[in-house]
Amino acid sequence: MPRPVRLHLFTALLPALVFLMAPAAPAADSRPNVILFIADDISWDDLGCTGNPTARTPHLDRLAAGGRRFDAAFLTASSCSPSRSSIVTGRYPHNNGRASELHEPIASHLPWFPHLLREAGYHTVLSGKNHLSSAPPAPGEQSQPKAFDVIDAGKAEGNGGGHANWVRLLRERPADRPFFGWYAALDAHRGWEADAEWREEAYGPKHDPAKVRVPPFLRDDVPTRADLASHANEVTRFDHFVGLVVAELERQGQLANTLILVMADNGRPFPRAKTRLHDSGMKTYLIAHWPAGIARPGIPATGLVSAIDLAPSILEVAGVPAAPTMQGVSLRPMLRDPAATVRRAAFSEHNWHDYEAHGRAVRAEGYLYIRNHRPGQPWQGPADSVRSPSHQALRQAREARELTPAQADVFLAPRPAEELYQTAEDPHQLRNLAGDPAHAAARARLARLLAEWTTATGDTVPAQLTPDLFDRDTGAAAAKGKKGRGNSRGTPAGAERQADRINAPGPR
Questions:
Q1: Contact 263, 286 (CB under 8 A)
Q2: Could you tell me the pLDDT band of residue 28, with boundaries at 50, 70 and 90?
Q3: Torsion of Cα atoms, 239 then 241 then 246 then 250, to 10°
Q4: 3-class SS shares of the chain: helix, strand, coil, % to 5
Q5: 398 vs 387: CA distance, rounded Å
Q6: 3-state per-residue secondary structure call for 264-287
Q7: Is the pTM of this model over 0.90?
């Protein structure tokens, strides 16, 4: 008769055997975290590290000193949602479908880089201003995958700047996955919430209007200085919350392994800035900080950079292939070497933002070349700028015939069909060289370059553009209905050539 099996020893060892046979817990992912800070309506020269003597941006200045400042970084549009559409897709606005115009969606078939990060295992978060949307898919097509694990408004009582939850979201992230944060402040959009919510113990004293720097195209008067000081307060508040995130990364031991990028979506919301193709609207401060990945930190990069380069750059850092739809080029060589160049030209667009518009620009060879396809219309700026004390001060000076030539440019109509500037010698772009024989060869080269880009990317000048939604002098809403123009939409640029299906980048 067989002897009974003694199970007591096996039973005692069973928990240990199960533990040994179980799959190991996943190790923490060592790929770099990425945080992209996008401010709202801040020009390139609104920071201390970019030369503003009265700006208080200590945290951004430290990031620039310990990382890489890109001194020739340009947006594709000086308009909120079109600019952000370029950043998220790595494509020009007119190649994103209706998204070339304010508050319009991105073509549904185009991938966003955050969803590619998410599919590769990143925990993705959008906190603050959400100005991104996709159009409904075309028949037979599927919607793009989810881009963000978390979408957070970022506001809290006493903090309308969109950054109230940035640190909390960083603390709540999964420990075993790399993190991507699209941290989009509402500062410094008009409304000036910072003035009403000011915390002197955190931000320091408010900016003194008597000490702010007034650009030559604005009036140097009391209302304008007060307006500029309020904008500077918003910039300082944004800087404070960036500093809190940096401190949290340091506390977590993740600062060295985190690529931090800081930029704005367009220029400050003042006359001759936001929506302009000039540097005051289109040039952005771009700061990168990544102790583990930036060689020779503190040395600025001077090569041209476009906003469409951010998507392929972030994906390369994360080890994720860029989508074939992306028209930008990775900036990784410029992180390794500040003297590296990745492109010879940067292109920008001016499409509908409150007002009918169609202009194009290219920067190359130290020049800015602009083609204005609606020269009969002034470039007064968006409606919130038109309603500002700064614009109304200019309007009063115009009525009194007291405008300087630089200030009069805000109202100029007709505008020149072509503009050409040497940007180093003329940083405010006040001397148009398009008709100067000494620069005729340069004008011709840049005109050909812009024409080549227009053809390659499928850009067009529609016969029927979206009309004005606001009065150009007062910013008041236009009438709606059959007799009004406020409820109609024209044809977006590139639609006739299906530019949203064109992936060619044109000259770079």
A1: yes
A2: low
A3: 140
A4: 35, 15, 50
A5: 16
A6: ECCCCCCCCCCCCCCHHHHEEEEE
A7: yes
pLDDT digits (tens, 9 = 90+) for 382-410: 999 999 999 999 999 999 999 999 999 99
Question: According to the model, what pLDDT value does residue 448 have?
Answer: 98
CB 66 within 8 A of CB 298: yes
The predicted pLDDT at position 141 comes to: 87
Q: Is the CA virtual torsion 264, 270, 275, 279 positive or negative?
A: negative
Please write the tens of the pLDDT for every residue from 65-80.
999 999 999 999 999 9
User: Is pLDDT of 20 > 70?
Assistant: no
Interval 324-351 mean pLDDT: 98
418 strand-pairing partners: 371
Give the Cα separation of 293 and 424 in Å (integer).
30
Q: Do the beta carbons of residue 131 and residue 80 sit within 8 Å?
A: yes
CA 483 – CA 505 distance, rounded (Å): 41
- pLDDT at residue 142 in the model: 87
Report the DSSP beta bridge partners of residue 74.
283, 306
Q: Which domains does the chain have, with CATH numbers?
A: 33-343 (3.40.720.10), 350-501 (no CATH)
- φ/ψ region of 415 (left if φ > 0, alpha if ψ in -120 to 50, else beta) reads beta
Tell me how far CA of residue 287 lies from CA of 219, 265, 301, 323, 335, in angstroms. Answer: 31, 14, 10, 24, 11
Asked if residues 195 and 207 have their Cβ atoms less than 8 Å apart, the reply is no
Which pLDDT band holds residue 138 (cuts at 50, 70, 90)?
Answer: confident
CB 40 within 8 A of CB 191: no
Longest distance between any two alpha carbons in the chain, whole Å: 119
Q: Please, what is the angle between helix 58-65 and helix 222-251, to 10°?
A: 60
Specify whether the CB–CB gap between 144 and 180 falls below 8 A: no
Q: Which two tokens stand for residue 404?
A: 């300087």
274, 41 Cβ separation under 8 angstroms: yes
Using alpha carbons, list the distances in angstroms from residue 457 to 74, 345, 385, 420: 18, 14, 31, 23
The secondary structure element, H or E, covering residue 263 is strand 258-264
**Sheet strands side by side (includes 418-422):** 346-350, 359-364, 367-372, 418-422
Listed residue (120, 64, 73) closest to 294, CA to CA: 64
In 28-97, DSSP assigns E strands to: 33-39, 68-74
